[in-house]
Amino acid sequence: MRNQYKFTVVLLIIGFMVAVQYNSVKKPEVRDTRDVWAIRQELAAEKKIHSELLSDLRELDKTIESYESSKEENAGKALLKTVDKLYEQAGMTDMKGPGLIIKIRPSAESVAFGLPIEGVSPDLLTRFINEINRIKGNSIEIDGKRFTSLSSIRDINGKTTVDGLNVSVPPFSVKIITQSFANSEKLYSTLHASEIHDEFYLDNLILEIGEPEKEINIRGWKERYTNLYLKELPKGE
Prior knowledge:
Elements: H1 2-26, H2 36-69, H3 72-89, E1 95-106, H4 108-112, H5 122-132, E2 139-142, E3 145-147, E4 153-156, E5 159-162, E6 165-166, E7 172-177, H6 181-193, H7 196-202, E8 205-209, E9 213-218
Antiparallel strand pairs: 1-7, 1-8, 1-9, 2-3, 2-7, 4-5, 5-6
Helix pairs in contact: 2-3
C-alpha cells in the first residue's frame, strides 16, 4: 500500500511536468512580428520626441542663464521678454508671417446630390491638426479661433468645438503661419501627399490647400486667462 502511494505521487508529478511542457509548446511566448521598417519608424518617432525635449531643455537653460547673467536693472527686461514669449505661445497675440490657407469645403458630389452637410468631427479635425504639426513650429487659426498646444478639440452637445467655441459647418478656413517660407513650401507638399484627403472625402468633404504665401495674418486669442494662484508681492519683498 505504501509503495502504491509513492508510485501514485510520482505519476502525479510526472503528469504535471508533462502538462506544463505541453502547454508551453502549445502556447509559445508572443513575439514581436513587426518588420524592420516598422521598428525603424517607431525608433525614429521616439528619437524625434527625444530631440524636441532636448530642444525645450536648451531653451529653458538659456532663459535661466539670461536671468542669472543679467544685472539687476536688466532682470525686469528679461522677465518681460519671457512673459511676452509665453503670451505668444498661448496664442494671445496677433501674428503674421509666411504660411498658407486651407479651405475645408463640401465635396462636389455631396452638393450635386443634395446630401446634408455635416460638421467636421473632433476626431477628424484632431488628425488634421496632427498632420499639420508634422512640420513643427506652426501657429494655427481654425475658423477664426486660435489653436495652440494649450487648446482642446471636443464634442459639446453634438458640435465640434475649439476651446469651447463652436466650429462652423463647412465651408471654413484654416490659417497656418510657419517659421519660414521654406517650411510653408514643405508643409504644402506634405499635406498634398497626405492620406488625410481620403479621410475628409469619406465625410463628403474636401481640402483646398492654398499656395504658400509670404504673409498670413492670424488673430490672437482675445479671452484673458484667469490667474487663480499667482499673486504680486509688494515692492521691496
